Amino acid sequence: MFSRILIANRGEIALRIIRACHELGIEAVAVFSEADRGAPYLETADEAICIGPATPAKSYLNIPAIISAAEVADVDAIHPGYGFLAENAHFAEICQECGITFIGPDAKSMRMLGDKVQARLVAQKARVPLVPGSEGELKDEAEAIKLANKIGYPVILKAAAGGGGRGMRVAHNDISLHKAFAAARAEAEAAFKNGALYLEKYIVEPRHVEVQVMADKSGNAVHFYERDCTIQRRHQKLIEESPCPVLDEKTREELCRSALRLVHEAKYHNAATVEFLLDRDKNFYFIEVNTRIQVEHPVTELVTGQDLIKWQIQIAAGNPLTLRQRDIKHTGVAMECRINAEDPARNFAPCPGPIHRFIVPGGPGVRVDTHLAQGSVVSPYYDSMVAKLIVHQPTREQAIATMKRALREFRIEPIKTTIPACLKILSHNLFVKNQVDTSFIERHMSS
Ligand code: ADP
Hints:
33% of the residues lie in helices and 26% in strands.
């Protein structure tokens, strides 16, 4: 087992990993930028090292600075969290070359599944249902138009290297596809330095359902059931829950088995999330794999009673998955609201600043993952998420009730947050009746 781990991240996920390390008897080394200096969560680490200025490129994305910190602190492994370097295969390779274990998959499978065009090919080999679309990268606009006419409009153009909802464009006819092609290519070039595009049929009114899997280095893999992340704003998840409230047992079983076939095909190890879209007729289609732990992992932890971060560490250390599939039970309903420092009244504009009042909810069935405290400052340099509020109850109705009362207890002042927006969604008739799709917020919450 490792004795010291460096966490190449910040905020709530850094704290989450520090906690897992300590429960495993491992020392945790945090890194921080000048903007995060003095943040209370850093005190929970056994050591904290400044790696540069506020700008992510100069600190949390600065590979030489992070590797130097790891060398100085003499760690055995690095946990990348999510975001920043978590899906950077080059970083995983450098860690390996320096004799430091990267807590995640190896660079090869990360590269393969991180490229959405290649991931589609792997899924196809593993007999996982795919959204109809291009076999590989699109050569040019003419090929896109030909294919769109073959599979039928609407279609969605996506960046092979895409992520975070960027580089995607929907087109309803040849004219809009012509415009979308240039725009998507430019956006992909700018965001990912890779203009490769592919095309898929645009699934109308889908739900987003994803399967959490974990595989060890000997090829044993298990799934931890699904999460439903249909409530999104601009393709960014806002509320997640498990189980998916509209899935029947047979479809759930097929979905989870598909995800396992895919990770076996990719000879993958460590945590992965296999994402799917579910159409109105309950057909599911693979869309992508995330080769890291995800923001919404606590939802799965609450319904399965498993600690996914500890499993990531165990597996990276070369220990076998001692869980068999039948040992993993799904109990009750868990739901997560992402509390972001954003102003819903001003089109969700980021709302950084100092927090003078911070009162965290508690009580039965409530978990709060946050790195903030009264007196903390939400930095304008990073992601606007200030807390994750997660609840667990026997039924969905009870989970919604607990979530609402916990959201009302939460005090984060004077900055604006997504709490009022979450409360509105949770009270919406269509959400309560499970009649939502990924466009729910845009369509029903614009006011
Ligand atoms: P990213 O990696 O940028 O997050 P994804 O491929 O995971 O992109 O897609 C993000 C979201 O975009 C999905 O959850 C869904 O809401 C929407 N989406 C993606 N592909 C399709 C599709 N073929 N049809 C309809 N919606 C889609």
